[in-house]
Amino acid sequence: MSISEPSDRPDATGARPPGRVASAARPIAALAAASLLGGGAALVGAWALGAFDASTTVVEATPIANEQSGASSSTGSTAIDVGAIYRQSGPGVVQITSTSRGATSTDVFGNVLPGRAQQALGSGFVIDKDGHIVTNYHVVQGASEIEVSFSNRDTVKAKVVGTDPSTDLALLKVSVDAKALTPLSLADSDKVGVGDPVVAIGNPFGLERTVTAGIVSALQREVRAPNNYTIDHVIQTDAPINSGNSGGPLIDSEGRVIGVNSQIETANGGGGNVGIGFAVPSNTVKSVVAQLIEDGRVDRAFLGVTLQDVSSDVAGVLRLPAGKGVLVGSVKPGSPAAKAGIKGGKTQVVVAGESYQLGGDMIVAIGGKPVATVDALRAAITAHKPGDKVELTVVHADGSKSKVEVELGRVPDTASP
Known about the structure:
globular; single chain; 26 strands; Thrombin, subunit H; Pdz3 Domain; seven-stranded antiparallel sheet; 7 helices; six-stranded antiparallel beta barrel; mainly beta
């Protein structure tokens, strides 16, 4: 199976396919069995630690166990009135048409010929009376013109306030009367539970405002963003979403947005829905939107390493220099970690089916506080800004320990595949 962005961008001939497997969307990735992602403070996991590279082992992300059953954790009830939610929230959902032009060419006489205009269709939703609209970055990527169509079929031009490829989010703005706008509220996605009923509203295959329903199937999924970084805390749902649903809201039983529908799992390379969709969580949306409104961009601290969790048992088997800590798998050349002298592993071994990169350093503390997991280190890094200096306690392969000061960098625009 493969993961696709449910957008509707045409091929080189200008024809719009029924479903597109976007090159920007890749299979869920993790380094060995260790998650590089997760944690309430993070927007994206891999960007804080470093881009995935050729040494990364790609595996399927495993679901996080959820002990709740029966009642919904976010609403207290599994009942949902789809019609009522559609009537309440539907007017706040819009269709987005982005137009871009391909590369120019020249004819036999040397005349420059304009590139073929191409359109991508997606969805979005209004978040305030100022005319701000949230959608996916891949819906408007490379667009020279963007139009937003409302439920009353009014169509207006939109401008891009800012984009964040690392979370596949974009913020648009339209100039319309505030009375014509129906903002949707953003829920606390940390309170969403497996089994919660949900509704998806969007424009699949260009069809105007379609509603589907389902449940939250899993939490803490990880999917690849258009720039090859990894989005964490992603919500999985079985509510049918397809090409054109990209950027539309995933809504809880109280009519609040818990996520932005962004990707789907497809069977055998096809573009149709197979009951597995993914939504960027609303808490990520809140943080990204706040920064885009204020600065027009999102800045994140960057260390430049790939890391692995190791249990005490594995540490003993591998004879690691420390029983607790985070194993440095690789260090990105020229990164803050590389400049600080942190070393990655060079020897790959497999224990109980899991691959580990040995011979490098282990990070056991940051700012004097012990860290035993990748999640803990990631959360500490993402609490800082580019340019901040942090002190890492590092145990080297020979068993010696040292404290290293690292000046955190800024996440690059793109990550290695």
